[in-house]
């Protein structure tokens, strides 16, 4: 899939906060943005994901911000690690077959080696089978400057996929009519961002085989961190039905026809 689109302007502020939270004074200038991508045998799809992240890192809204991309090659038997290095990403190798542990290993690598854990460091995550839009990272940093400590995004399927329409109908069932602000209930590691300080405050991603992203967001909310749920900058993700994690997004899609009467 192409990632060569021209950079988009940053979106307007999004008021889609978790109920009970609100934007506080901004966190100040973000000096470093870390993007972590866990991958298990993803040589076919990882290059497009890395191209998209590289395009997002070139957005003019990131002027003066250092960006670090970390690929966690988890129990890979293919060229995932080699392709990541060729694209200029840092590579962490693990053998845990656990998305939560892999994501956390990537974050810790970046924070320990490059960035530390201050309020001026932003951690974003996406997936190896997903492509972020050009303004994805700039949008998150804009929200961080407004005071949000986490940004929880959404995903879409390729329009050509037969699952695209049923997915959208089910996925957006809670969207208010008339195009109002949508405080969506979804959490995806494919589109998530958090300040390093907030991440460390709650202990980071737990070592879960599925649901590590949701567990992190729930921990942030319990601790009172400001969490923005937004449908701006949706990430294009794979419609593959062979789930890499039992109970994950692939299993959700595999059950989609049953849920929609198809």
TrEMBL record:
What region holds the Glycosyltransferase 2-like domain?
A: 35-169
Main location class? membrane
* UniProt entry tagged with the keyword Cell membrane: yes
**Claim: Cell cycle is one of the keywords in the record:** no
Alphabetic keyword roster: Cell membrane, Glycosyltransferase, Membrane, Transferase
Q: At the top level of its lineage, which domain of life is listed? A: Bacteria
Which Gene Ontology terms cover its molecular function? glycosyltransferase activity
Q: In which pathway does it act?
A: Carotenoid biosynthesis; staphyloxanthin biosynthesis; staphyloxanthin from farnesyl diphosphate: step 4/5
Under the heading InterPro entries, the entry gives: Glyco_trans_2-like, Nucleotide-diphossugar_trans
Please provide, in alphabetical order, the Gene Ontology terms of the cellular component aspect for this entry.
Answer: plasma membrane
Cellular location of this protein?
Answer: Cell membrane
Q: Which PANTHER family does this UniProt record tie to the protein? A: GLYCOSYLTRANSFERASE, GLYCOSYLTRANSFERASE 2-LIKE DOMAIN-CONTAINING PROTEIN
Q: What biological function has been recorded for the protein in this entry? A: Catalyzes the glycosylation of 4,4'-diaponeurosporenoate, i.e. the esterification of glucose at the C1'' position with the carboxyl group of 4,4'-diaponeurosporenic acid, to form glycosyl-4,4'-diaponeurosporenoate. This is a step in the biosynthesis of staphyloxanthin, an orange pigment present in most staphylococci strains.
- Family per UniProt? Belongs to the glycosyltransferase 2 family. CrtQ subfamily.
The name this protein carries in UniProt is 4,4'-diaponeurosporenoate glycosyltransferase
Q: Which organism is it from?
A: Streptomyces solincola
